[in-house]
Fold:
Amino acid sequence: MSDLPKIRVRDLKKSFGTKVVLDGVDLDVGAGESVVVIGQSGVGKSVLIKCVIGILQPDSGTIEIDGGSITNPDFQEMDEVRRKFGMLFQYAALFDSLKVWENVGFAFLQHSKMKPAQIREVAEEKLRMVGLPGILDLMPSELSGGMRKRVGLARAIAMEPEILLYDEPTTGLDPIRADSINDLIIQLREELGVASITITHDMVSAYKIADRITMLFGGKLIAAGTPDQIRASDDPYVRQFIHGSAEGPIKDE
Structure:
């Protein structure tokens, strides 16, 4: 791993009106490292990764990718930086009117001069990597939930990114299909060497795929450690969350 973090976030703040969502978040992700951000629904996990990829602009703070700030007001190369990213959205976010190969190759269709036959070849290669060969011409409506997630993963890796962002990758899946997605995330990290941030409230998934787990609460990352360290944490907020207990300092609002 390089000494320079692939992703470096410092004092990141983001509010929507009077609601403070991120209140001084610091986070480093090394090259090839899998970091999982846990926390309740609505605490700002998705906001964090949308700021990292540039979908949302933070109110203040800095985000660096490979040592270069993307939060400088004069920064003009966000499109180039985004090419380093692949993202799996919570519900795969496939285009229902496009065939599978068009979904996987969407970035090439929009931003390259590649011919359809070439894009189909890339799509088939990526689909094979996620265990779905031979489905190029199916429509999203013909896919199960687990298959849609895999197609979403194939799209996320289509342009061979250096960083993968996963937004609740196991949401809506039964435990067997969820574990299959976990295995794919591990496989892609090993085969592609990507850095990744995964946001989830699924602790089974978090323990399996993470090199490091951190917890977002009250706008801040309040704990960080290896899966074993988080499992053994005596922090009452962490313990309540990882055990899914109604009793504790976190109140259901």
Notes: Residues 175-192 form the longest helix (18 residues). The domain at 1-84+164-173+195-253 is CATH 3.40.50.300 (Rossmann fold).
